[in-house]
Every structure is written in structure tokens, then in C-alpha cells.
């Protein structure tokens, strides 16, 4: 399977960025690192946004992009 080079690079960037945020989150949730509530909220938001970017890049790479304005339930 061949992929568009730009989409492949974007996918790889988005994946690495999401993994970095996920690693930070795992240090808190699984390893017991402590954060003040505002910093924890920020971490959760950064991880969620990074996951959204990764999901979008994965869909673009695979040619599964949805029409703009559509939600996940097609409503």
C-alpha cells in the first residue's frame, strides 16, 4: 500500500505528538506523579487534542476523511 508522502509525514508527526502527551498522562495516572488540578486539566486537554489530531491524520492517510461538518454519528 502506498501513501501520499505529506500525509504520511503528518501522520507520523501527529502520532509522535500524541504519544508524548500520552506518556505524560501515564506518568500521572499509572506511575503516581502528582500535578496540581489546573496542570492536570491542561495535561488532559493536551492529550485529547493530540489524539484528535492523530485520528484526523490517520483517517487522511487511509483516505477515510469525513465531509466537513459531519459528526461521528452522521447527524
Please give a structural write-up.
It contains two helices and no strands. It has 75 residues and is mostly helical. The model has no long low-confidence stretch (mean pLDDT 90). It has a single domain (5-62), classed as Helix Hairpins.
In percent, how much strand structure appears in the residues? under 5%
Alpha carbon gyration radius: 15 Å
Indicate the CATH architecture. Orthogonal Bundle
Which structural class do the helices and strands define?
Answer: mainly alpha
Instruction: Work out the helicity level.
Output: 55-70%
- DSSP strand count: 0
Helix-strand pattern, N to C?
A: HH
Shape: elongated
CATH class: Mainly Alpha
CA(first)-CA(last) distance = 32 Å
What can be said about the biggest beta sheet?
Answer: none
Number of domains: 1
Give me the CATH fold name: Helix Hairpins
Give unreliable regions as ranges.
Answer: none
Helix count equals 2
Chain-averaged pLDDT: 90
Amino acid at each position: 500500500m502506498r501513501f501520499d508522502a505529506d500525509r504520511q509525514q503528518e501522520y507520523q508527526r501527529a502520532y509522535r505528538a500524541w504519544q508524548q502527551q500520552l506518556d505524560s498522562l501515564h506518568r500521572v495516572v499509572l506511575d503516581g506523579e502528582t500535578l496540581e488540578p489546573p496542570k492536570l486539566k491542561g495535561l488532559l486537554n493536551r492529550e485529547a487534542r493530540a489524539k484528535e489530531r492523530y485520528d484526523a491524520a490517520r483517517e487522511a492517510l487511509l483516505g477515510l476523511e469525513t465531509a466537513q461538518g459531519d459528526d461521528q454519528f452522521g447527524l
